[in-house]
Amino acid sequence: MSEESREKYIETANPNAAGDFPYMVREVAGGKSLTIDPAFHVMHWHADLQFLFVTEGSARVETLSDAVNVSAGEAIFIGKNVVHCVLAESDAHYYNFLFPADLLRFYAGCPANDDMSAVLAGDALPLCRITSDTEWGSAALSHLERLRRFDEAKPNFYAYHVLMELFSLVLLLRENGAPSISAKPDDTNAIRTKQILKYIAAHYAEDVSLDAIAADAHCSKSACLRSFQKVMKMTPYSYLIEYRIEQAATQLRQTSEPVGTIAERVGFRQMSLFGKYFKAHTGTTPKAYRARYR
Question: Which pTM value belongs to this model?
Answer without folding.
Answer: 0.68
